[in-house]
Design a protein that fits this description.
- It is built from seven helices and ten strands.
- The chain is globular.
- Helix 2 links the parallel strand 2 and strand 3.
- Strands 1, 2, 3, 4, 5, 6, 7, 8, 9 and 10 form a ten-stranded mixed sheet that branches.
- It has one domain: Metal-dependent hydrolases (TIM Barrel), CATH 3.20.20.140.
- It has 223 residues and is an alpha/beta fold.
Length: 223
Amino acid sequence: MKFELHAHTFYSSDAIVSPEDFVKTAKIKGMNGIAVTDHNTTKGWKRVLAAGKRERIHVIKGEEVRVFHDGRKIGEILALFINEDIKPGEFLEVKDKVKDQGGLLIVAHPFDFLRNHFRMTEEYKDHFDGVETMNARVLFDYFNRKAEEFARKNHLGMIGGSDSHCRYEMCNGYTEADIARAEELQKAIKNRKTKAYGKKTNPLIHTLSALTKIGLFTPKELR
């Protein structure tokens, strides 16, 4: 089964995909499930879940959360299989909130030094459940290869995601698991039974995200 595990709706300030198009696009592109991982918010959950029910595609509740160490930003994590909003905060506090909800803690694009790489991978490696080893938005394959090496070295699960902010790039990265039911995915990640696949997104797409973030491009529904 195939899953898109890192994607954003327009509830992220730099994305333009409606929750409904978000789900429809994942289904069209052959995914069995999709995680909604907006930046530091769960506002899109309700609409994505409703769309997932209509389209008969499995939805995983998640969030991309900014984390800190002694007040200094050190990167972002994907909190997957959670049930409540988690605010940005100190890494260990965020980790505890994810675990209290029975979720998984995935380090996002840890070695993408041109974006938000994770600055303390070694210090916190024992707290991760998995590593994003295929992020379609990286500019250089080296960043993903280094993430895969880190995951193998530390016996961590591997996931793939597009990190998409528009429909064009959705599912360029994805996670594959040899499971019979989508509900088994969480266990498969934890037990290192998943693989990450995909292709790099055209880097020009970053321009659209930048324009959206500074307010020069706004989805019609949000105007």
